[in-house]
């Protein structure tokens, strides 16, 4: 196995890695702050596609709920719902709280993966606990922080817009497919540049193997 980036542990298998400039090293992790990010991924309608001269294929749509961040860190970007883990909370409790505060819903969240992000303007490493759920209860409601919207993970079969990767954090495109296909993942991405224009220069994503 190739050398794992600092902060990545466990029985992992590399899925994708890269760098803009090979000479640059991983940033040093001085302190970690814990964050959450929660996604609802649900089956949509079953569509029938007629394949000429062959048969009719029945394709199930997959839909993902994202929120457009209206303020603060990552403003204007689409992401899952989440924020800092408060003192005395477990990451799961924080994820449930943030999902309710930001999207107005409750969901049976399950652990999906872990991401570590470092960047110029912030001296700590973001340790993000990612969760997903297949269903939710309550009414999806826009909050002061997030504007929720459904997107399609199977764009040819639906009227919903495709996942807006061009308006998400760069490198999200690497792990969102793992989240959707329920493969537990772990990753790290180091960014450079000022806050709203920071770009990844080194990244590593892997799947977590059963031990
Ligand atoms: C590249 O960096 C990031 N990528 C992705 N996909 N998500 C990220 C990245 N950096 C941070 N995040 C996530 C982690 C959290 O879910 C939010 C940030 O949380 P926020 O700063 O809004 O924390 P809150 O507790 O909500 O802050 P308030 O005090 O403003 O409520 O973004």
TrEMBL record:
Domain annotation Nudix hydrolase: ranges: 44-176
PROSITE patterns, A to Z: NUDIX, NUDIX_BOX
UniProt similarity note: Belongs to the Nudix hydrolase family.
UniProt xrefs under Gene3D superfamilies: Nucleoside Triphosphate Pyrophosphohydrolase
Protein purpose: Oxidized purine nucleoside triphosphate hydrolase which is a prominent sanitizer of the oxidized nucleotide pool. Catalyzes the hydrolysis of 2-oxo-dATP (2-hydroxy-dATP) into 2-oxo-dAMP. Also has a significant hydrolase activity toward 2-oxo-ATP, 8-oxo-dGTP and 8-oxo-dATP. Through the hydrolysis of oxidized purine nucleoside triphosphates, prevents their incorporation into DNA and the subsequent transversions A:T to C:G and G:C to T:A. Also catalyzes the hydrolysis of methylated purine nucleoside triphosphate preventing their integration into DNA.
A GO CC term attached to the entry: nucleus
CC cofactor: Mg(2+)
Assembly information from the UniProt record: Monomer.
Major location (coarse): nucleus
Protein name according to UniProt: Oxidized purine nucleoside triphosphate hydrolase
E.C. no: 3.6.1.56
The entry's keywords: Hydrolase, Magnesium, Metal-binding, Nucleus
Molecular-function GO term, any one: dATP diphosphatase activity
Top enzyme class: hydrolase
Localization in the cell: Nucleus
Record-linked SUPFAM superfamilies: Nudix
Taxonomic lineage: Eukaryota, Fungi, Dikarya, Basidiomycota, Agaricomycotina
